[in-house]
Amino acid sequence: MPIYIMLNKPSGCVTACRDDTHSTVMDCLDGLPKEVVGTLHPVGRLDIDTEGLLLLTDDGKLDYSILQPGHHVEKRYFFRAFGDITDEDARRLENGIELYHKNYNAMPAKYEPAGKCTVRDVFSLLPAKRRAKWMKNPEGPVSCGYLTVTEGKKHQIKLMIKSVGCHVFTLKRVSLGGLSLDEGLAPGEWRYLTDDDLSLLGYTPPVKA
Predict the structure, then answer these.
(1) Residue 73 pLDDT > 70, yes or no?
(2) CB-based contacts of 189: which residues, under 8 Å, 6+ apart?
(3) What is each CA distance from 145 to 19, 119, 171, 181, in whole angstroms?
(4) Helices and strands: H and E segment counts in the chain
């Protein structure tokens, strides 16, 4: 039977089966025999500093079902960003903004604000190597929100937010299609997908003859 896994990807590991420099998402699969891990691959990718919902499988048809651009599978992300996202910025994001330093537009997205604060308020969440830089302006604005997109261009969320003059420092994928990240999974933890999970993805596994 095919294997389907939900991983809460932690920051700091790359979405790859192997890497000479960094740890990979495959290193998170504690408890699985190496020969089983060797048959699996990530479905899509998340940047090294992005956390959240990542699927792993040995079923290539699941990749096609989720990643095929024409299927328009929704991907929802939570972000924190330095800067103030205004109502006008939100409209630009939702209408399909031109990506920062790219000559093409993203498809229309759904933006949901989730509050604002200051750099001082999120000090403990800042990347350690950049804390000194950002704390030079401790009262600087920070915007939090959700973006839902139906495509997967490289660094897309970061570039969309940068296009409105803000800089993402926290990014987490919280859902894929109708499937949400299991809140019981700590970063780096995983579990098998259930039949209900696969139904939420709109996917029916192949039947073994």
Answers:
(1) yes
(2) 7, 8, 28
(3) 32, 15, 10, 17
(4) 6, 9
Question: E strand or H helix at 112, and its extent?
Answer: strand 110-118
* Judgement on whether residues 97 and 80 belong to the same structural domain of the protein: yes
CATH number of the CATH domain containing 11: 3.30.70.580
Q: Which residues are catalytic?
A: 47
pLDDT tens track for 88-146: 999 999 999 988 777 888 999 999 999 999 999 999 999 888 889 989 999 999 999 99
Task: Report d(CA 56, CA 63) in Å as an integer.
Answer: 9
186 phi/psi in degrees, rounded to 5? -75, 160
Q: How far is Cα 18 from Cα 34, in angstroms, rounded to an integer?
A: 13
Q: What distances in angstroms separate CA 44 from CA 19, 25, 29, 169, one per listed residue? A: 16, 12, 17, 21
The residue written with tokens 């290539």 in the block is 60
Whether residue 85 is found in the same domain as residue 169: yes
Q: How many domains does the chain have?
A: 2
* Strands 167-176 and 51-57, sheet pairing: parallel
Q: Which domain holds residue 58?
A: 4-69+177-200
User: Does residue 152 sit within a domain?
Assistant: yes
Task: List own/partner pairs for 159-163 with CB under 8 A and 24 or more apart.
Answer: 159/99, 159/100, 159/101, 159/102, 159/106, 160/93, 160/97, 160/99, 160/100, 160/106, 160/109, 161/79, 161/81, 161/85, 162/100, 163/92, 163/97, 163/98, 163/99, 163/100
